[in-house]
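**User:** Here is a favour to ask of a fellow structure person. Please take any protein you like and set down a full record of it. No explanation is needed for now; the record alone will do.

**Assistant:**
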Amino acid sequence: MSEWWTYSLSDFLLFSPRTYYRLSELYNIAIWPAQIVMLALGIAIVLLLRRSGAWQARAAAVILAASWLFVAWAYLIGHYDTINWAASYFAAAFVLQAVLLVWTGVVRNRLSLRRRADVASRAGLGLFLFALIVEPLIAPLLGRPWTQAEVFGVAPDPTVVATLGVLTSAERPHWHLLLVPLLWCALSGATLWTMQSPEALVLPAAAVVALIVAACKTLPVSQP
């Protein structure tokens, strides 16, 4: 039996890149036109991020929670589970994230959004726009068909980045809401890196931005 230190990440990959991207294509075809609906909801969140108020934060939390639930049910359980035995565990984490978003942002109304044009707000809006506009373009820009595009609200990666964008725009850091998205960034980044995908660093980079902003909000501000 080989020693554990002789294994690499590729030894734990349960599928080939071709199988992974083909699964995304079949998934997109199966759920069409859900992508259009989710993109419209994403635009609604952009408008909400430009304002402040209790109902705006609640609405954003509801849309995000619905997106995490949809990804858990339609993608992770309905499709990803066919090639990865751990998909059901990932789905449970996505459901947990949805519950936390509803509890924090709707029930307790603690997800206050920042209206100020500061670095945190711009970083949050930038992350969200990247997830909404740029991530669906990655597949065709890399030579893959449009049917393999990853769209906010229906695919896990852009949904996670968009959530990091909203959390980055919040008045204060919510570390319990950041845990699952950050873990997914590490997991998805490692998977794509193992498959030698050019977009492997996208999610880790988004996680770093969110961590830096959250840490800056946590540190006390010295008064002159």
Summary: Residues 4-12 have pLDDT under 50 and may be disordered. The radius of gyration is 18 Å. The longest helix spans residues 54-77.
